[in-house]
Amino acid sequence: MGNCGTREESAVVVSHAQVQLLSEKKQSQSQNRTLSDLGDFEDSRKNALLYTHVIAFTLYELETITKSFRSDYILGEGGFGTVYKGYIDENVRVGLKSLPVAVKVLNKEGLQGHREWLTEVNFLGQLRHPNLVKLIGYCCEDDHRLLVYEFMFRGSLENHLFRKATVPLTWATRMMIALGAAKGLAFLHNAERPVIYRDFKTSNILLDSDYTAKLSDFGLAKAGPQGDETHVSTRVMGTYGYAAPEYVMTGHLTARSDVYSFGVVLLELLTGRKSVDKTRPSKEQNLVDWARPKLNDKRKLLQIIDPRLENQYSVRAAQKACSLAYYCLSQNPKARPLMSDVVETLEPLQCSGGSAGEVSSSLNPKLTGGGAGPFAMGGVPDYRVRHRFSNNVGPGAICRSPNPNCSPGGPAACRVR
Question: Quick one: CA torsion of 151, 154, 156, 162, rounded to 10 degrees?
Fold first, then answer.
């Protein structure tokens, strides 16, 4: 499906003043707020910018397209609200083009729902990228807060990885999803005012019809540090199993906190296991604790690769991906790579058309410790990195596919030679 087009002719401009007005209206209605809540609320309001191409829907219009929020229209439910499928067209409002959408109805309880609604409008209203879910519009009537997004046909990465009834994702598709999600995070971190996503996990990575990964649910996103600031101090929020250890311990949030969460998701893609799984033996319940010691051990790392892949992948590519996950999950935040470096590392692991999916036999210099590569930074000596990766790469591992185009979205696979 891709990014659901530009619909400038049907868009309504939401001004900074309008967002402030919505904030003030809700603020006057809420009675039980802590000083911390008010501080976070004011931060969100101050960060509001001028948004274009965002449609202001009425509650009646959104009730119409979801058949009064019928239960059989529910796509999913999360901590911040229920998501329904809908369809907008000229019958909803003259000038709208036909488009399937997802409508999120935020919880009404307390300030939390409104603050997260406002945060999503603030960030997705101004940010556009192929790997971020597109915000089509919003609704703010009385105490109702709704958001309207482009519809993602294949749902969440979580469902594809962990639902037993689904066909296992191929190696090529997993690496394509990892790259797309990494590009989304890199875009946020490199924005004019950096954004820390703070809730990066498989359930927040949505897939379109071509398996393009897009980040969704910006309710916990925070503006990153500026100037001489090294971090943002905030209440610890997120999802257990994905949050960086230093953030959990101190509340100090940085872009490297997102990098850690990315490492957890990459580990889930590699192993097919959940970040936390209480059904497994006690030593295997926490994925990072169980898998990280094996990621830089060439004798053990292939033992943790998802057995559902049935060896249909390049050993060299698996080794590189495992090494990347290892550094993303470093206990020392400064030893983790930047997301832009993660993108650069993942790009050579993609199966591309015209090359029969062959993975280059030469190591990415970012991984070999040569020069100022990201893994040579953050206190990891150059020689140790070079030795570690040179030992991990075996000869002659070529990515082969029965499909000459090696389509990442299709069933093509890369066979171990």
Answer: 160
Residue 394 has phi, psi (to 5 degrees) of -95, 155
In this structure, what token pair is assigned to residue 35? Answer: 């000083």
| Secondary structure letter of residue 403 according to DSSP | S
CA pair distance 133, 1, nearest whole angstrom: 12
DSSP 43-110: HHHHT---B-S-EE--HHHHHHHTTTT-GGGEEEEETTEEEEEEEESTTTSTTPPPEEEEEEEE--SH
CA distance 41 to 27: 9
* DSSP tag of 394: P
Model's pTM, two decimal places? 0.73
Altogether, the residues listed in the chain come to a count of: 417
Residues annotated catalytic, as ranges: 199
Contacts of 34 (CB under 8 A, 6+ apart): none
Place of tokens 């309504």: 12
Rg of the chain (C-alpha set): 22
Residue ranges and CATH numbers for the domains of the chain are: 8-150 (3.30.200.20), 157-392 (1.10.510.10)
Q: What is the pLDDT along the chain (417 residues), one digit of tens a residue?
A: 433 333 333 333 343 334 444 444 444 444 333 333 334 434 433 433 345 578 889 999 999 999 999 999 999 887 678 899 999 988 888 888 889 999 999 877 644 567 778 877 877 777 889 999 998 999 988 888 999 999 999 999 999 999 887 889 999 999 999 999 999 999 999 988 888 888 899 999 999 999 999 998 887 777 666 655 555 656 666 677 898 899 888 888 888 999 999 999 999 999 999 999 999 999 999 999 999 999 988 889 999 999 999 999 999 999 999 999 999 999 999 999 999 999 999 999 997 433 333 333 333 434 433 333 333 333 333 323 333 333 343 333 334 333 434 433 343 434 333
d(CA 175, CA 313): 11
Determine contact, residues 412/171, Cβ cutoff 8 Å: no
**What residues are designated binding site?**
104
To which residue do tokens 């809420």 refer? 30
Give the residue ranges of the annotated binding site for ATP: 104
User: What's the rounded Cα separation, in Å, for the pair 383 and 381?
Assistant: 6
**CA 388 to CA 229: how far, in whole Å?**
34
d(CA 350, CA 348): 6
| CA gap 22, 209 in Å, rounded | 35
Nearest to 290 by CA among 270, 311, 309: 270
